[in-house]
Amino acid sequence: PPPHSATLPPEALSRALSAGYSALSPAEAARAAEGCMAHRGVLWRTGDGAQTPWAGQLIHNAAADGVVVGPLVPKASSTTLRAMHGNADRPPGLTGRGTPKPPASFQLAAVRHPLEHFIAGYKQNGLWFDKAKRDWGMRLPLYPPRDANVTIAQLYCDASDEERAENFADHVNMFTSRPMEKRDPHHVPQLHWLQNYVAASNGSRVEVISAVDALLRLERFGHDWVDATAEARRASKAKRVSPRAAEWMMTKRNAKVHDRDHASMDDDRLKKWEPLCGEDGGRRYFRTELRYHEQDGKVVAHDVDPSGRAWRGYTGVALGQLHHHYAWRYLSKHLKELCAYLANDFACLRYAMPAECQWAMAEAAAVGTGVKPYA
Predict the structure, then answer these.
(1) What's the rounded mean pLDDT across residues 256-260?
(2) What is the pLDDT of residues 19-41, one digit of tens each?
(3) pTM, whole model, 2 decimals?
(4) Which residues contact 27 (CB under 8 A, 6 or more apart)?
(5) N or C: which end of the chain has fewer CB within 10 A?
């Protein structure tokens, strides 16, 4: 049998998650997801679920371009899709999931590998650990005062490996158990945003995945965009969709994941795992320097990477990169819980569960985990 997944080096697990999405076209992926969700009994849920001003919502610009975008899934190209409409935060046409789909419009949404999505959410806004909370006497999420001579990344590296691992374990427990309405939107499974639902306010039935015409994968965003554009063109010739949809999508065909600094927090810059906090006695990846910052009008602590690029220490950029990197160190111990919880995401979004995950699931079936799939 293969070695226990907890013994795998982090870079091996990372490579295992870099492939495994289906070869279905975006249109086929949308219908396959809907059919799978119906088969598994998770196509419909009751209640509006997680609510935010943008996450899970739609962008309706059908009057101008014949396209509806959404639901917007946090950490799955949502910034790129918003930027395409003129604002990477709150673009024109942003509206709720319950807004009816205009006639002759083409709707697309984007997803990514379920475990990569979980890690990206931890990186973006992961739970903090007790030592830092005690040091600063602040409530979560923790950020140092703006005039502090220490950075949030420095605090993370000042903690012990055991404390960082415990923090990650707490985050896994939160992700697999906390009620949706009490979560940060970056900590919500992708399937939740895609589910059709019965609105709690008035009992109306709101179609979400059932309205999506094309489901794009982050791992092949450019290719899927081209394929979805071709599908919109075919639907236009069949008089089902406005020709404006394909025309607008053609103008955006070269779009990339928006803002590389933002995206680099999702994409680990290193080829293999390294002790970035200096556990081996070497230098830390980010050093702390006091620099004058014009916007603040004073000297503040900065995180500085080996190339000399610096970020203010109370921002989350450096911490996000550390969160992402160290998640690979701690992930193996939690595969049983995460794979069990994300089983429907894997199946319905058509991502192959990596072998390491399958071994963990086999073990979980034998001993039990107490974690049920998100439904």
Answers:
(1) 50
(2) 556 678 999 999 999 999 999 99
(3) 0.85
(4) 213, 214, 227, 228, 231
(5) N
